[in-house]
Amino acid sequence: MENFTFYAPTYFAFGKDSESKAGELVERFGGTKVLLHYGGGSVVRSGLLDRVKKPLDAASIAYIELGGVKPNPRSGLVYEGIDLCRKEKVDFVLAIGGGSAIDSAKAIAAGTVYDGDFWDFYEGKPVEKALPIGTVLTIAAAGSEGSPDSVITREDGMLKRGASGEAYRPRFSILNPALTQTLSAYQTACGVTDIIAHLYERYLTRTKDVEVTDRMIEALILTMINEAPKVIANPDDYEARANIMWAGMIAHNNCCGVGRTQDWNSHCIEHELSALYDCAHGAGLAVTMPAVFTYVLSNDVTRFAQIAVRVWGCRMDFYHPEKTAKEGIDALRRFLKSIGMPLTFAELGAKEEDIEKMAATCCLDGPLQGFAKLDAQDVAKIYRLML
Amino acid sequence: MENFTFYAPTYFAFGKDSESKAGELVERFGGTKVLLHYGGGSVVRSGLLDRVKKPLDAASIAYIELGGVKPNPRSGLVYEGIDLCRKEKVDFVLAIGGGSAIDSAKAIAAGTVYDGDFWDFYEGKPVEKALPIGTVLTIAAAGSEGSPDSVITREDGMLKRGASGEAYRPRFSILNPALTQTLSAYQTACGVTDIIAHLYERYLTRTKDVEVTDRMIEALILTMINEAPKVIANPDDYEARANIMWAGMIAHNNCCGVGRTQDWNSHCIEHELSALYDCAHGAGLAVTMPAVFTYVLSNDVTRFAQIAVRVWGCRMDFYHPEKTAKEGIDALRRFLKSIGMPLTFAELGAKEEDIEKMAATCCLDGPLQGFAKLDAQDVAKIYRLML
Question: Does domain B11-179 have CATH number 3.30.30.10?
């Protein structure tokens, strides 16, 4: 195991009606004037926005609003949010929504207290300072509610890039599984796929003898396999929603990724798809993951055989472990299809003629490093596996 | 899943030589004058104490020392530590050792800033305020390095009791698996048993449909089953030590215990044994757990069958699930024996004639509540199963 540090000081209020704690939590973490940041109309229509405002009013906490966050959140709205926060002297950013609202809120929180262009953070500058951030989560997916990460798309060139830093860890996150009951089956499945991707990206390691984190990752994928079909069949299954929601946080707060190299090549390769075609990140990952895994399988057959046996219930073929390894990838593909995810470029609306361009953009900063080293040629071959 | 809050803001520095960070970490969390609190001579003899003092000196942090913590730490030394901290105006307590040193440090940290008798906390008063606490862990076992809990034994009546509160969460914990390589096989196995107990105590729940935490607990017990024999065979196996150390923290910081009722009856019943005979807590748990589980098995056969199949690799007997459930307990017993743990009263040096007295003390505040409700008569019967 490699040396590491782990610090995850987010306060989680989990369960039914937990959004009623928004006031006391903003107060506890020092907010006096809050930016409420959210996406489209569903947060308003569902009455959630009002249910968050009520406890803020009760705690005499001032707030302003900025809606309009889109999936694959854009830099334009971030600049707008930064200007607004500075003008209004906001001291706390509260995201209400999923990964997009939270990631956008993080960028605004860092940009507000930074003299330069916030995009610097998305080109590699560590995020060391930001306004305190809180979240009210409405979809189990990105894990941004407990992570130090944020992904933003710059309109100019449609570059989708990530930033990271301890200042990006939310001070508190409100996790009410009931809020996810109104999601469509498709949105739910996209979230589940993103969670599974966060787990595979950590599972695909070059570090040996990391049994504890291997086992934890397997446990969380097994949870997805057990719980996702329940919520697809019955959107109101609160218990299954709750299992998925907590698993989504644990999957990405990194307690099961410490001390080991991680991959993230599937995420990088997918980002080009969602940046260019504006598809859902989870849907893009469903198409991307099996292709990437098939391409890199020979790098460590045992790793893929282990997850095939332990997670997907495949029988180990000791004479031909690569068969078992492939069976595991097939099982993943079947599972993703069973919850309604796309598996091909065509289903995603992606186009073969864009492959070379996407591969080049993906490797703009050099070959991808992770479980396997992949240059633009490799990435193009992987995209072709998705045709 | 039940509503819950989860807040685990401990900073972990994990890996080789991580004790060299003691200075910067005490500084980061506001300490200027530190009580170094530890047990017997091994911390001194091994040179660890000096390796902790060096970075403190380099950071110009003042410190005083209080050694002498014993296993099953006593109230007498806690009172001494409180007097010392007040007299010397200590503002940070750094425990160097295992659960005993850490639990004693927690009691001192709370008692120093409390006007009444610190024992109040061990009679149920929530711990709301304490000096900040740091730890340098030397045995993977108690999980106190990442938990809000502490257990102290009062000499007067040999009462062993626990206290809990967010102020008891260490600000930082230094986890260097190499420090555990000098432990004897017996000490190591006691630690492993304690970790397994923390997991079973959470597994035995009355809450239904908590797949995510079920799976996480199973993952961590599977890790123990895989890694413990390696360190018993080869004490210098750093990788196995590292897996056990991280698992020990995760097992008890409660991320796998949230949203579900927990048990803790095995701990309560064991506490009487270690209080009276001063045996190692882990050894006491090895004797206690199988007896408790056998006694309460009929309360939820399915629960015990699930862990038997998923963790212990038993084949499910669908006609006679109770057989599978019992097989799981037998497998636990065999595993504990294989790592050198005792399984009977005699091996522990416990005496049949003390049973009624222990059962009465154990239920002094009423029947135990947990997976099953157990009154003094039940507890006495459970002790008899250990004969």
Answer: no
